[in-house]
Amino acid sequence: MAARHEEIAEALRRAIDREDYTVGSLLPPETELAARYGVSRGTVRQAVATLTAEGLIGSRQGARRVVLAGRRSQSFAELRSFAQWARAMGREATGRVITQEWRAATAEDRVRLQLDPGARVLHVLRLRGLDGQPVLLERTVYADWISPAVEHIEADCPSVTQRLLDDTGLVFAYGEHVIDAVAAGARDAELLAVRRTSPLLRVRRVTTTREGRPVEWSDDRYRPDAVSFSVHNSIGNNALARKTADH
């Protein structure tokens, strides 16, 4: 039998999914939640801590908690990996390396990753899936200083972000994203199981450490029937969210 704080956490997750509490809104005060569920404020704090660890809510001034994302969306105001986003939805993320090779850094690589002339970088083409269905192709270029750690990660690792944290202590802290649409070429179409020239959602991103050191840049292409992007606007919140296409 689930502990009471786990039951309350699940009730709050469902309320967020129903958008009873929308992205950017505040949860009720602890005293109100404690009275609603007939528990102590300590039990409410445990439930809230669970949702905070999942990235669904966060804290601002005072004790009130703000909704950062639903389980089916990832606010780009926070930085979560594909695997973390999938796990928050209760879905299984998979990954498979299609190709991986070292190359001399191009002029674009050097600019995006702030590299010296002559640097060599690791290029990885990775197919990502949700519950076994292909949804995303990642073409990622890793900076020379982190490439050796990436090279030794197994080809079917579901979360490179988590593995790099575990192995090296690296934290992906900041991301810059540019979103547009492209037509699927022959290889993309085959790997994503779509027709050639089908529209794909493309996200080009550069990710850095807390200190602003570039770690990777990537060209990510999503099946449009698997994910969509939405923007939640308010005076105090302008969060771009990644969502499953059926939600």
Q: What does the largest sheet look like?
A: 6 strands, antiparallel
The N- and C-terminal alpha carbons lie at a distance of 30 Å
The count of DSSP E runs of length 2 or more, i.e. the number of strands, is 11
Gyration radius, to the nearest Å? 20 Å
Quaternary organization: single chain
Order of helices and strands: HHHEEEHEHEEHHEHEEEE
Report the total helices. 8
Organism: Streptomyces neyagawaensis
Protein name: GntR family transcriptional regulator
Keywords: DNA-binding, Transcription, Transcription regulation
Domain HTH gntR-type: 2-71
Description:
With about 250 residues, the protein is an alpha+beta fold. The longest helix is centred in the first third of the chain and has 14 residues, at about 5-15. It is globular, with a radius of gyration of 20 Å. Strands 4-5-6-9-8-7 form a six-stranded antiparallel beta sheet. The protein is built from eight helices and eleven strands.
